Amino acid sequence: GQENISREEIQLIEIYCSYKGEPGIIYSSEETEYLASRLKFSLVGKFSHGLSNLNFLRNRIVKLGLKGTVNVGRLNLKHVLIHLSNEENFTRLWLRGEWMFDSFHMRVFKWSPDFDPQIESPIALVWIRLPRLPVHLFETKTLFTFAAKIGKLLRMDVLG
After folding, report:
1. Block mean pLDDT (10 aa), the chain, length 160
2. Pick from 83, 72, 70: which is nearest to 40 by CA?
3. Euclidean distance between CA atoms 109 and 80, whole angstroms
4. Residue 42 DSSP symbol
5. Full domain range(s) for residue 154
6. Does residue 25 sit in the same domain as residue 57?
7. Which pLDDT score is estimated for 159?
8. Are the C-beta atoms of residues 54 and 15 closer than 8 Å to each other?
9. pLDDT value at position 5?
10. Is position 116 within any domain?
11. Which of helix, strand or coil describes residue 105?
């Protein structure tokens, strides 16, 4: 317990664990990265006009037939966090971009540790067309290498 902590340690705790007189916790960059990595397959759903029933949304997402687990929690009146257990489900929901659940319109974007409900996410999907790419260059490894220069390739259209 705290009775075993010296006065100097208590002062250090007070110095390093308070902000404007309020208790706080300081995380190392390694701890922050680790904690954020656990949400790497998470999306934020934004309902511009709000969502009244979170259980309704959870049930509708379950009916999508996703593999693995999915957890949906409310962040505030207009935002939900959709935490998925695998990249396949994450990509499927993110690529769709917009969803309608009855009369509730939801836009999804990738969660990041810097998420702020007052600011639109700077992370966006980009669809790249290469209309004059010769067929023999339309090869998965080549296109993944090209895409890596600007981001992460999520999906390729199939020829044929």
Report:
1. 44 54 77 88 91 88 91 94 95 87 87 86 70 82 79 68
2. 83
3. 11
4. E
5. 126-160
6. no
7. 60
8. no
9. 46
10. no
11. strand
| Alpha carbon separation from 151 to 90, 101, 139 (Å, rounded) | 16, 30, 18
Given CA atoms 31, 33, 36, 39 in this order, what sign does their dihedral have?
negative
Residue carrying structure tokens 């044929």:
160
- The CA distance from 146 to 152, in Å, is 10
Pairing of strands 42-47, 70-74: unpaired
DSSP state of 110: E
pLDDT at 125: 67
Q: Which two tokens stand for residue 131?
A: 């209309």
117 lies in a domain?
no
Sort strands 104-110 and 98-101 into parallel, antiparallel or unpaired.
antiparallel
Burial label for 106, CB within 10 Å (0-12, 13-18, 19+), is buried
Amino acid at 53: N
pTM value is 0.65
Instruction: Tally the domains of the chain.
Output: 3
Q: Are 42 and 84 in contact (CB under 8 A)?
A: yes
In the DSSP assignment, the letter for residue 142 is H
For residues 62 and 41, the answer to whether their CB atoms sit within 8 Å is no
**Chain CA centroid to CA 62, Å:** 18
